[in-house]
Inverse folding.
């Protein structure tokens, strides 16, 4: 059976050749007419609205063709990403005009009009002649034209003998095979590559997906590496420094109880005191470094970390609102926390604010962190004075986020951080 299907063509290929001609002609011709109407009305606002509808229709046409290719030929073409919705008439028109996936689907629908006819004629027409030739020995004697049987081929030459009828059957088999091979060639060499190029995801979209995935893995790996460094410093170097400080404190007590007051003993006490002070300073700096890498409060979630952060400001009352149904990824939590810490520090040190509000919530598939203060305003991404907004903007962009600043002179200031949560 597989050999016969390979020789005469599979039923799926035949079915596709017959079925696909209907949407190929109807949808392609309709889209072509709509584009013609758009060209006539392009100078008016109605024409622009029609363009949005035409491109949406083109996307739907592409979905129909992808469904036929997948269902009948097993050709799985990944659909392009959905067009992003834009607010406002001008933004919607601009988004439609620059939507390359819709234009490529339009090109396929129009180009497929003649191709569908060619595939149909090659598949059905050649096979029809082949089937007629194959069955010719069964019905050639039933033909009667002026007392002569068989089909006339050229002039008086007629296929009116059994050898000629059998030879016609052999020719019919060859035509059936030629129809199958021609159909398979058209589907494999023309329809398939054209569909993948125009109906699937473009190379740029695939490249963007790969880069986004690579960036996500890099961010996650960076977060995991920082956590590992934080644990090693906390459980290793910090613990050893604490042990050294305790040993130095014990040595200091022993030297303090030692009798006598010789220069060597005095010098030893001074060295131990200096070493003990240095170890305590190193422990404090190491603890600050560990907290800067990954605050311990984040181990319990962003909500707990923000509560701890807000409660640490005595001179700046902070109102906190957290609405996160699902815990965000660790890397996003870390970025959001450090953004909140930097923004609250700016409000307390540079903006002369008397109160602040912090809100963390999920909206539109993104983590939103909003910090509002009643300070003097005038915050700018590249302003001086140590605001650090440029650094925050760079940190947020590593995960394709945005830093939105609303800070008129005289205040109030509202800075919102948007961090896409991803799939």
């Amino acid at each position: 059976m597989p050999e016969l299907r390979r020789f005469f063509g599979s039923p799926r290929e035949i079915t596709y050749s017959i079925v696909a001609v209907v949407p190929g002609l109807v949808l392609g011709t309709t889209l072509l007419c709509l584009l013609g109407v758009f060209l006539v009305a392009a100078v008016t606002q109605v024409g622009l609205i029609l363009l949005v509808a035409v491109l949406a229709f083109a996307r739907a046409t592409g979905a129909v063709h992808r469904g036929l290719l997948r269902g009948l030929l097993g050709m799985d073409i990944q659909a392009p990403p959905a067009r992003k919705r834009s607010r406002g008439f001008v933004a919607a028109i601009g988004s439609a005009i620059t939507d390359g996936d819709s234009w490529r689907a339009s090109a396929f629908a129009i180009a497929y009009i003649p191709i569908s006819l060619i595939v149909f004629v090659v598949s059905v027409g050649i096979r029809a002649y082949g089937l007629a030739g194959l069955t010719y020995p069964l019905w050639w004697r039933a033909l009667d034209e002026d007392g002569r049987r068989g089909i006339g081929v050229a002039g008086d030459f007629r296929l009116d003998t059994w050898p000629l009828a059998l030879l016609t059957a052999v020719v019919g088999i060859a035509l059936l095979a030629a129809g199958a091979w021609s159909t398979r060639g058209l589907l494999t060499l023309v329809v398939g590559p054209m569909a993948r190029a125009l109906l699937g995801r473009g190379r740029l979209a695939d490249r963007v997906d790969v880069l986004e995935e690579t960036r996500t893995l890099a961010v996650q790996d960076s977060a995991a590496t920082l956590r590992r460094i934080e644990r090693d410093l906390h459980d290793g170097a910090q613990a050893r420094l604490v042990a050294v400080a305790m040993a130095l404190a014990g040595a200091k007590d022993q030297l303090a109880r030692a009798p006598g007051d010789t220069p060597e003993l005095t010098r030893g006490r001074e060295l131990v005191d200096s070493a003990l002070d240095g170890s305590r300073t190193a422990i404090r700096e190491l603890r600050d470094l560990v907290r800067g890498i990954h605050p311990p409060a984040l181990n319990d979630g962003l909500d707990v970390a923000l509560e701890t952060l807000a409660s640490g400001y005595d001179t700046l009352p902070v109102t906190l609102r957290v609405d996160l149904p699902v815990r965000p990824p660790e890397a996003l939590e870390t970025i959001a926390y450090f953004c909140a810490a930097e923004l609250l520090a700016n409000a307390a040190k540079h903006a002369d604010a008397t109160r602040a509000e912090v809100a963390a919530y999920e909206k539109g598939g993104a983590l939103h962190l909003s910090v509002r203060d009643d300070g003097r305003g005038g915050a700018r991404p590249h302003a001086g004075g140590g605001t650090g907004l440029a650094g925050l903007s760079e940190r947020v962009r590593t995960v394709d986020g945005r830093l939105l600043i609303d800070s008129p002179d005289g205040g109030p200031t509202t800075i919102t951080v948007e961090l896409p949560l991803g799939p």
